[in-house]
């Protein structure tokens, strides 16, 4: 999940202000001057356009890959939970006092950690599968069948490298929900996600929505920083009201970007 901050800073310094905003539903072109080394700047252009049926597999794969990257961060989050620390400490202490050997408690704790990692990976992939069976099952019908919703991809050299969707929120019909933001790992830190956010905001403004809203999970630190950088503000957060949600302190943060009224 980490990115080389020094390299990224250089890449950002290299980015030239040659972006142009097109119609949110149409195609927008963005040129970025990129380089791994100051002496070798190369030009990369990415385009943002509406989703086409041929993007189906890539979009689903981008989403699944982006989300599956969170397993290590989730493991660290779980290891910070008081009940997990208690279980591991008690197991270690009990086995140490009963066996009078270090080997058994170390093996037992390692086994528990490995099982926990597998279990977490399993539940997380179930969550990803559920998303793939919801709005991402028929992207065309969910996002492009109505005037008030849309799905975009960013492509570099005809290759889709990022995605975002937007559809009316279930809670408030004047709110547009931003969903399925994902950028391929090797194209991160270049401003593609921020550009996609701005496309969604433009779309919301053009379609008369009063705000853009989105949900993030407690482990999505980069995403939260990115949304805040665009101007989204956190307005609510809660722990998922399920057994698993409480066990994992699974916190959902809701963000909003208010569209200023035209008058
Ligand atoms: C979150 C994500 C979409 C960001 O994409 P991106 O194209 O790298 O983001 P951008 O380059 O447009 O924006 C960069 C901003 O994101 C934040 N950011 C990105 N990576 C970061 C990192 N490793 N550490 C801290 N902040 C980070 C910063 O605010 C940064 O702004 P800055 O460049 O001014 O410092 C991308 O990391 C991703 O696809 N993650 C996996 C899927 C996911 O979490 N989606 C969000 C679902 S809510």
From TrEMBL:
Residues covered by the N-acetyltransferase domain: 102-257
Molecular function per GO: N-acetyltransferase activity
Residue stretches spanning the membrane: 102-124
Matching SUPFAM superfamilies: Acyl-CoA N-acyltransferases (Nat) (SSF55729)
Highest taxon of source: Eukaryota
Listed Pfam families: Acetyltransf_1
Sorted UniProt keywords: Membrane, Transferase, Transmembrane, Transmembrane helix
Alphabetical list of InterPro entries matching this protein: Acyl_CoA_acyltransferase, GNAT_dom, NAT_camello-type
Name of the molecule in the record: Probable N-acetyltransferase camello
Organism of origin: Python bivittatus
């Amino acid at each position: 999940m980490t990115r080389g901050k020094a390299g990224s800073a250089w890449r950002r310094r290299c980015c030239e202000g040659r972006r142009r905003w097109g119609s949110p539903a149409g195609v927008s072109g963005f040129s970025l001057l990129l380089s791994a080394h100051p002496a070798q700047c190369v030009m990369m252009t990415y385009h943002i356009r509406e989703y086409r049926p041929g993007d189906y597999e890539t979009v689903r794969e981008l989403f699944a890959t982006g989300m599956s990257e969170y397993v290590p961060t989730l493991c660290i989050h779980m290891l910070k939970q008081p009940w997990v620390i208690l279980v591991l400490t008690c197991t270690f202490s009990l086995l140490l006092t009963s066996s009078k050997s270090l080997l058994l408690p170390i093996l037992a704790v390692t086994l528990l950690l490995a099982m926990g990692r597998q279990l977490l990976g399993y539940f997380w992939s179930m969550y990803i599968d559920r998303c793939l069976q919801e709005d991402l099952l028929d992207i065309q019908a969910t996002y492009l069948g109505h005037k008030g919703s849309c799905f975009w991809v960013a492509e570099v050299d005809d290759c889709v490298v990022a995605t975002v969707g937007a559809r009316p929120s279930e809670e408030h019909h004047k709110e547009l929900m931003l969903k399925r933001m994902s950028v391929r790992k090797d194209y991160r830190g270049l401003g593609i996600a921020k550009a996609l956010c701005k496309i969604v905001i433009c779309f919301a403004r053009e379609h008369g929505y009063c705000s853009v809203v989105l949900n993030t999970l407690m482990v999505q630190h980069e995403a939260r920083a990115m949304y805040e950088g665009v101007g989204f503000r956190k307005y609510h957060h809660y722990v998922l009201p399920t057994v698993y949600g409480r066990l994992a302190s699974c916190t959902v943060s809701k963000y909003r970007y208010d569209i200023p009224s035209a008058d």
